[in-house]
Amino acid sequence: MTADTCNIAQISKSGKVGAVKTPAEITSAIIAGSGLAEFDLITAPTLGIFAHPQTDPPYYSLLTSGQKQQYRRSIVVLTVWQDDVIQRFSSGIKRVKVIKLSNSTHYIYLNNEELVVRHMRNFLLGE
Question: What is the secondary structure of 71-126 as a DSSP string?
């Protein structure tokens, strides 16, 4: 089992992947609150690393057909939301660098640690 799977979903003692840990109302609150971000107030150089487009989580093949359908519906909503946030982030901050890493999941810093660290170091060194 990968670290991101253990962070996202409940895992039974037998190793079966269950429901996501984050309640739906938390996800809804995050999406609603993201529209309030005033990116234009950020004046410091800013790095944004996004998993975009996100790939299916490693446990996807273990989901039931119903869970897969629910995931597919949620990923469509997530992608629209993420497109909006990235666009506002990119255009709202004057000194911004945006990196989109495809074929990654929400826990990009766990699955692509080396790449994330490299981008962070390059940014901090002004490269």
Answer: HHHHHHHHHHHHHHHHHHHHHH-SSEEEEEESSB-S-HHHHTHHHHHHHHHHHHTT
